[in-house]
Amino acid sequence: MVVAVAFVAGVVGPASAGTDGGAGPRSAGRAPVKAGPAHRGQIGPAHRLTLVTGDRVTVDSKGRLLGFTPAKGRERIPVSTRTVRGHALVLPYDAQRLIDAGKVDQRLFDVTELTSEANRKAQRKGLKLIIGYRGVARGAKAGVRAAGDTTVRRTFSSLNADAVTTPHRDTAALWKTLTGGKRGTASGVRHVWLDGTRKASLDKSVKQIGAPKAWQAGLDGKGVRIAVLDTGVDATHPDLKGQIVDEKNFTDSSPSADTKDRVGHGTHVASTAAGTGAKSGGRFKGVAPGAKILNGKVLGDDGYGSDSQVIAGMEWAAAQGADVVNLSLGGDDAVGVDPLEAAVNRLSADRGVLFAIAAGNDGRRPRSPSAPSTARTSSRTSPARARAAATARSSRT
Asked: Region entry Disordered: which residue ranges (predicted)?
């Protein structure tokens, strides 16, 4: 269900637009927002966040909109709110036009997503973005770097993009730079994405995909390199002894910046992909026991990682000669092509890499299958009962 309400930007009082019920227009005010009778059902403390436009939003612990304060100079820009499949969106008019044009990521205005525990933790030091450019774009890149204290964390050749962090106080300045103060993106700017969070997702059984039949035909993955981009891999596990040929850490959550798996998920995935089954006498060997593993740690010791960490791992895997890149991770699929989907498409086309990506374990949930399994060039896996995706699917042969 989609619920929309338009209002003139000011300070907006408690509104029912944060639920799946109807809502009327909201008038501008001058005082700070306070939850009134309309929000007696408010649960937990309020969360305040600053959008990429510099506008400030207040929501309750369920992500429902409580109030809105425009950035200086943006008081006359109309703003609409929508609830889409349980997610509250706050959409300034200038941003909505760019979202519709496919230039700006709608997740940047999904206040339910932005105030999730994982995103609040990831964005606490500033708003993390991935900015894609057209061509060399020296002027655009210089403008981004000059927007307050914006810093570049990573550069991605596959996307012609930079991962940046902007202090919340400087987001209005960055937005003006990105849009050129007009109703479009500045010259040289192609995309503005949220550097969102991804979480580990369970892998499926070996028998389910018919691996034993492949073994009988003499196919065991010999000569193939499989990159496991996950929480790291336990190289001391008997089933993985001698299987890992290279490894690299892309996270900032591990105190020692190592590739060890402190969650267990990455080790499980690597064993499913190319475990020898040594510990069980071959009973629990992986799909391709003759293959070798590239261990890319892109998810931290809490099981979460950012889009930019995952993309960095994808580019590294391709450079190391990976034939297959496994991503047993994901997040809610959003409108348009997100940066992970764009990277999957680009690396598949340019490097011939096959991406095997979890579609999620959410079955009939509205935002299933998860991203980036929704990329057009990925092979995705999901529970056989899931309505949204087949057990195994690929658009590549």
From this structure: 16-42, 360-397
